[in-house]
Amino acid sequence: MLFLLKITITPVLVALMSLIARRWGPVVGGLIMGLPWMTGPILYFLGLERGEAYAANTAVGVLLGTVGIAGYLVVYALTARRARWPVSLGLASLTYGAIGYILSGLNLGLWLAAASGVSSLCAAFLLIPRAPDPGGIRYLPWWDIPMRMLATAALVTIITFSADHLGPELSGVVATFPVIVSVIGTFTHSQWGWAAVVQLDRGVALSLQSFVVFFLAVGWLAETVGLIWSFLLATAAALLLSAALLASTRRQSKRSREIKATSP
Questions:
Q1: Which end of the chain is more exposed for a tag (fewer CB within 10 A), N or C?
Q2: pLDDT digits 0-9 by tens, 217-252
Q3: How far is CA 195 from CA 53, 123, 171, in A?
């Protein structure tokens, strides 16, 4: 059931987020992308099947996974200016795997895992360089969105079956690989250039703070208020933070345009 959920919902999410990024730019696309679109529903169904304690414990592992994603974003962004997407994706994936494997052997609590996620994402946002605005709406070929969806479905299938044949530590690392970020990032890099994917990665690093808030709330509340209420409260907290980040980013962008317009 979970495999069918991944194989059907994830490509649709990639299509929707790609359209958002195409319409409003890679920064807004990155900010939307950081919400727990796929991991949240999957964890909810696992919680229904295995109980609130399992959901709370799994939330800790997901929070640790954000440290690996932060490393992925930094390496991809720094490599993208000098290399094409296959090299950038390869080095970023190796970084994610190395960090995830190291952290999987540690027994960290919920709050320490959340603090590690927040600090690593802040560091990633600061380390990823600013890039010039690549422009507004892009008109891409008709096959672009279907190809993104097909690539997503293929990647989810490979990851799912690989995780089933690995040990518990490696399977956890592989199963939490940032599929949506990888597919949209590589297509953005290939079609829009390095500046667009760097802006996308900065937006994702910022937006993933909402991701951390969501799973912190689930891990903290699942065993006390129940699965449904913990997910509702976590969703509300994540959406509020994401909306605040989006509004702040738009204000900064508007201020930058006004400064450029008034400068000689």
A1: C
A2: 999 999 999 999 999 999 999 988 888 887 777 676
A3: 43, 19, 33
Q: At what angle do helices 179-192 and 26-33 cross, to 10 degrees?
A: 170
Write the pLDDT tens digit of every residue in 28-40.
666 677 778 777 8
User: Measured between alpha carbons, how far is 23 from 18 in angstroms, rounded to an integer?
Assistant: 9
Q: How far is CA 165 from the centre of its chain?
A: 25
In angstroms, the CA 184 to CA 180 distance is 6
* Domain residue extents for the chain: 2-262
Instruction: Copy the structure tokens of residue 107.
Output: 């027994």
Q: What is the identity of the amino acid at 59?
A: A
In terms of Cα–Cα distance, which of 182, 184, 179 is closest to 163?
179
CA proximity to 128, closest of 77, 192, 181, 56: 77
Q: DSSP string spanning 80-122?
A: HTTS-HHHHHHHHHHHHHHHHHHHHT----HHHHHHHHHHHHH
Tally of CA atoms within 13 A in the half-sphere of 262 that contains its CB:
6
Is 55:170 a contact under the CB 8 Å cutoff? no
- Cα–Cα dist 143/36, whole Å: 27
